[in-house]
Amino acid sequence: MATYAEMKEMFDEIRADFRYDHELNGCLNCGICTATCPSAQFYDYSPREIVQLLWTENVEQIYDAMQEKIWACAQCMTCAARCPFKNSPGGLVMIMREVSIRHGMQSAKDVLRPFGRVMLKLITTGNQLSPDMIQPDHFPDWGPNIQKVEGDLRILRKAIPVRTLQTVETAWEVSLKTSVEMYTIWEMTGVLKSLETMDENLFDVIEDFIDEKREDYEDWLESQER
C-alpha cells in the first residue's frame, strides 16, 4: 500500500500533464458518459466516477481507481463526444494509466502482462494484432459482431487475393525499414523504457530482437551501396 505522500505525488503528476486541463472542465453529474459507455455495461467502471474523483482531488480514491478501474476503459471516447461539459474521461484515464506505468504499480503490471504476446507480435511482425488473436470471449464489449468476424475468419482471409492477407498469423506485411523506424520511435517516445519497467524479461527479449533487426537493416543498406 502506498503512503499518502506517494499517492499525492502520483496525483500531482496526473494534474501536471499538459492534457489534464483540456480533458477536465467540471461535472454536471448528469451521468450521460456512464450511460453510453460500453465498458460500463460489462465491468465495474464508471467514467463519471473518474471525473468526480479528479475534480474533487480525492487522492486516496484516485489511487484506488488506478488499481483496477482505469484498466476497464476501452478508449472509444464515446464519453468525450457526449459530455455537455466537454470532459474526456477516456483521456483522463489514459493519463492515469501512463502515471501508473511510470510508477511501476503492480496493478499496471498485472493488467499489461497478458499483452506481452501482443507486444511481441508487434515487434516481430510489425502488426499489433493478428486475426488469429481475436477471441470473442476476451472482448465482450465488442458485441455480437465479433462472433461473425471470428467464425469464418480463416476462409475469408484465404479468399482475399493479396498475398500478405492469406494468413491469420499476420495482418499485413511490414518492411524491414518500417520496422527499424518503428523501433526508433518507441525508443524516442519512452515506450521501451515503460516496457522495461513493466516486464524486464520481455524487454530483454525484445531488445535482442530489435538489435538483430537493425543489424539486418544495416547489412541491407550496405548491399544497396555496392
TrEMBL record:
InterPro entries in the record: 4Fe4S_Fe-S-bd (IPR017896), 4Fe4S_Fe_S_CS (IPR017900), HdrC_iron-sulfur_subunit (IPR051460), Helical_ferredxn (IPR009051)
Record domain 4Fe-4S ferredoxin-type: where: 16-48
Any Pfam family matching the protein: Fer4_8
GO annotations of cellular component type: plasma membrane
Top-level taxon in the UniProt lineage: Bacteria
Keyword vocabulary terms for this entry: 4Fe-4S, Iron, Iron-sulfur, Metal-binding, Oxidoreductase
Molecular function GO terms recorded: 4 iron, 4 sulfur cluster binding; metal ion binding; oxidoreductase activity
Gene3D superfamilies per record: Alpha-helical ferredoxin
This protein's name: 4Fe-4S ferredoxin-type domain-containing protein
Annotated source species: Acidithiobacillus thiooxidans ATCC 19377
